[in-house]
Specification:
The chain has about 250 residues and is of the alpha/beta class. It is built from five helices and nine strands, in the order αααααβββββββββ. Strands 1-2-3-4-5-6-7-8-9 form a nine-stranded mixed β-sheet.
Amino acid sequence: MKPNLETTLKALDLFGKLDLEKKVEIIKPKVKRNETLDLIIEKYKEGLEKFGLYDEGKLKIKIPEGEYCGYYIAKSSAPSKISSDNITEFSLLLEEHENKNYFGVFTGWYLNALINRSKDKDFKIFTNYLSKTIHYIGYKNRKNIVVNGNAGWGVGGGMKDGKITVSGNAGDEVGFFMENGKITINGNVGNSVGYNMKDGEITINGNTGRRVGWDMKDGKIHLNGDYKSLGDFILGGNIYHKGKLIVENGKRL
């Protein structure tokens, strides 16, 4: 009997909770390909190629002011109205593309485009079997996203609303230019958490790097592990360290 998606997700949830020595006990289930997944992958490859050509100066595209080129190309490539289940299944197939140039950056933009254009609200992305990290997960997010595994730079950048939870670690600039919503990282993160954050709430349950709250305008940051330094020019908002208020309305206490 072939496992359905629900069985697959339960197995991979457990996979993400096991320590490194025990991860070999669970083999990532195979995803059965279908027309929708084939379309998602075909458009992903097309977008990845366009992004590479653009970066190399071989493709001329006018990028709207204030838009990231990668996300703009991803939006123009990604099919709309893709279901949450199909996006989860696509994330389980990403291991096949890890050797591609620009994998970490463009894959994040493409996942965001799929999620933002979907009618569904709740999404689960699996990264715990990848050797490379995916950056900018949750860009301009308004949905509820769970990342089972690690994430790269810029989780929740420009986030508008909704929730993002990462079970593992994340890179620099979690919540940069965040406008609202909630981000929770259960592992460690890099530098500049909440950079230019305008509102919303960020919780880091592991350790945090330097420049926490740099250029932060408003919102809340909860640091439940250790941190290296606060940022310069904290203009507003509150920062808590292990439950203790250390920055109130932009002023260090």
